[in-house]
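[RESIDUES AND BACKBONE]
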Amino acid sequence: MSDESDDLSPGWDAISGALESLYPGQEPRHFGTVISYQLGGSDPLDGISVYRSEESRPHWHFVTFGFSELYAKESTDPDVSGYGFELTFRLACATDASEPPMWALNFLQNLARYVFKTGNVFEDGHWMTANGPIALNENTPICSMGFAEDPRLLALDTPNGRLKFIQVVGLTAEEEEAAKRWSTRKLLDVLLPFMPLWITDLHRESLMSNSAVATQVMDGLRVDGSSQGYTYVDVLRIDMKKRLLRKSLIQVTLGARQVAQLHELLPLRLPFGRPFTVAGPEFQLVFQPAGQSGVAVDGAAMTIALPSITEFLRIVQAKEGRYQMAGLDEVEWHIQKTLITNPEGEVVATYG
C-alpha cells in the first residue's frame, strides 16, 4: 500500500504491524477483494493475508482484514474496532506446499457473510457446525469449528479501538458433540497437546477416540455440567395468536435438529441452575430454571421458566409436528424438518 493510503488505514496498519512482529521479513500472500462489499460485491472481507509457518509443523496461517474498522472510525463505541475481532486459521500443509488452498479463503469469507448478515460475532469459547466438510471436494471428518484466541497474536489496541484475533479450529462431529455438551474452551485446552497451536489437519482422526481425551471430557461433564449457554440457529420464530376469552397462543417454531440439541444440552444446564439461550436471526428464546412454570414475551425475546426439564424432553420431540406441554398450554411448539444442503443447494441430509 502507498504511504498516502497507509495514512487512511490505521486499523489495517496496526494489524499488519502485529503480523510483521510475528513473521519478521516475510512477505505474506495477500488476497484482496476486487469489488467492495459496500459497493455490491459478494465478499465482506477486504482481504486475507496468508503466512507460512514452520512452528510445531508446516502450516498456513490465514488472517482476515475486515471484521474490524480498517479505515475511518465509524462505529459509536470508541473502545472497540468494528466487530471487535479478526479471524485467523491455521491449516496443516505439506513441507513442499507453495500456495495456500483457495477453499480456505472461501471458507473464511463464508464465516464473514454469516457475521455481516446476522450480527452474531465469534468469541473465545464459541463453536459452530459447518453442516458438512469444511473443505469441498476433500474427504475429511472435519465438519465443525471451535473458536479460541490465537495463541500467538495478542489482543491489539488500534486507533479505531481494540480487537482480538480469534482462531478458527477445525473439529470433527464427535468433538463438536463434546464441545456442546461440556465446554468448547475446556475441550480445546484438552485437545491442545494433541494438536499444537490448534492447527487444523483435514486428514486427522477424531481425538475423542483418544482415551486420555475422552476421560478428561467425561470427568469435566460430571463436575461442571455444560458451560454452553447458547446456540445460534437459522430457524426460530415466535408468533402471538389472539384467542377469544383466553390468553394469546404463543407459537414457537424451531428446526428438528435444534430440538435434538436442546435434548442434549438442557439436562446439562438447567439442573445446574444455569439458563440456556437459543438465538435466531430475529428472535431469542431463553430456558430459565425456576420454581414454577411460566412464560414471558418481551418483543422478540421469550423466556420459558421450567422447574423441571422432564416434561419438555418427553413432549417436544425432534420430529416434525406440533406439541404442547401441560402447565404451559399457552405455548405451541411447531417443529419443522431440518434440511442440510451443500453449497449447490442440494439436500444432503434431513432431520425430523
About this structure: The chain is about 25% helix and 35% strand. Confidence is low (pLDDT under 50) at residues 1-5. The chain has two domains: 3-224, 230-339. Residues 3 and 9 are 10 Å apart (CA to CA).
